[in-house]
Write a structure and sequence with these properties.
By secondary structure, the protein is α+β, with helices and mostly antiparallel strands. The protein has helices at residues 7-22, 65-75, 102-110, 120-125, 128-135, 147-153, 159-176, 179-185, 189-210, 218-227, 232-243, 247-268, 291-300, 305-308, 316-319, 323-326, 329-340; strands at residues 29-32, 56-59, 79-80, 83-84, 86-89, 92-95, 97-100, 138-142, 279-281, 284-288. It folds into two domains: 7-153, no CATH class; 159-312. Helix content is 52%, strand content 11%. Helix 9 (189-210) packs parallel to helix 12 and helix 11 (232-243) runs antiparallel to helix 12 (247-268).
């Protein structure tokens, strides 16, 4: 893709050469964070066909939004770096400099303001994609002195919450790992393949969570895994599972993936070491890793009694995959609260 300039690089230069001089006398922070493939460096030339171009998010003090927005709008050039500064965002043409007050932006994106205390409910009700969008990208200038601390606070889960989320992800695997064989046994190869694909998704998410990376939404999940150091063999095993034409080959590939996850579990040493070899599912001839073994051990390792007592529903992404919920913080928070009650996780 010769000539393509990644959005993060383009926006960094756009801020330095155009936006910063326009706002030099206004206390502000500037970044490329939030929605957009360029924030996670997943953008390609294809991305430029919509909602893409030189972009900067400006945070200014309360009461200064309208003044700064008017100043920027009046002075922006028509193009920068060969790209127009006005382009379609959400279907509506507008320039790529968004001006906001930080508290309002954070509440709109996350459903809470992390400059205050971050509760267990806050962590579990915030989609992984939203956390990745807030902690990804780049801060070009933090004149307000608050943006970098916010990003650092959200960089990863507190230790006990991480253990809880990992346990719930192992349970997702444990709940269905034997079904792949059972479906094939009754002649349902299509059902077996569909189950294997679902398990591959859960494996990919767990692999990222083990490495302290928020799994992105479906479009970029494979890309995120491919970028993770040491994940090539895991990706190859999952590819073989999805390409398999028989249950025997499908099971063999999934078992290899499970054992790799088990080995990483022992390597990160959150619990006492567990046996990493697959085994029969009770008396049935289906090989499984026994995801519930890892879940139980992780839960037992949680030091905070309130977190240890949480129901095994995990984060909102483990509870729900409805886009209209995950994109709306109020809905995600309400659903998470309902799942956590009566544990009083927010206390």
């Amino acid at each position: 893709m010769s000539g393509f300039v990644p959005g993060l690089e383009l926006s960094r230069a756009f801020y330095g050469e155009v936006v910063a001089p326009l706002t030099a006398d206004v206390p502000h922070s500037a970044a490329l964070i939030g929605a957009g493939s360029e924030v996670q460096a997943f953008d390609t030339e294809r991305s430029a066909d919509h909602d893409w171009g030189p972009r900067v998010l400006l945070f200014v003090p309360p009461g200064a939004v309208a003044e700064v927005e008017a100043r920027v709008t009046a002075a922006l050039p028509e193009s920068f770096g060969g790209y127009p500064t006005v382009f379609a965002q959400g279907g509506t043409p507008r320039h790529g400099v968004a001006v906001a007050e930080m508290g309002g932006w954070l509440n709109e994106r996350l459903g809470f303001d992390p400059r205050e205390q971050i509760t267990t409910l806050d962590w579990l009700s915030t989609p992984w994609q939203a956390l990745a969008e807030t902690t990804g990208g780049e801060v070009f200038h933090d004149g307000l002195g608050e943006l970098e601390p916010v990003r650092q606070a959200l960089r990863w889960y507190p230790d006990d919450v991480w253990r809880h989320v990992l346990a719930c992800q192992w349970r997702r695997i444990g709940a269905e790992e034997s079904f792949v064989g059972r479906s094939a046994e009754v002649g349902d190869e299509l059902g077996s393949a569909v189950l294997a694909a679902g398990l591959a998704r859960q494996v990919m998410r767990l692999a990222l969570l083990q490495r302290k990376r928020y799994p992105p939404y479906g479009k970029w999940l494979g890309s995120a895994l491919a970028r993770m150091s040491g994940a090539a063999e895991l990706g190859q095993a999952l590819a073989r599972a999805l390409q398999a034409r028989s249950y025997h080959d499908r099971e063999q590939a999934l078992c290899e993936a499970y054992e790799r996850l088990a080995a990483v579990h022992n390597r990160i040493a959150l619990t006492t070491p567990l046996e990493t070899a697959v085994r029969p599912f009770h008396t049935r001839p289906f090989r499984v890793i026994g995801g519930d073994r890892f879940a139980a051990c992780l839960t037992e390792s949680i030091g905070d009694a309130a977190v240890r007592a949480l129901p095994p529903t995990g984060s909102i992404d483990q509870l729900c995959d409805n886009t209209d919920v995950l994109r709306t913080p109020a809905r995600a928070r309400a659903l998470a609260m309902a799942a956590l009650a009566p544990s009083q996780a927010a206390a």
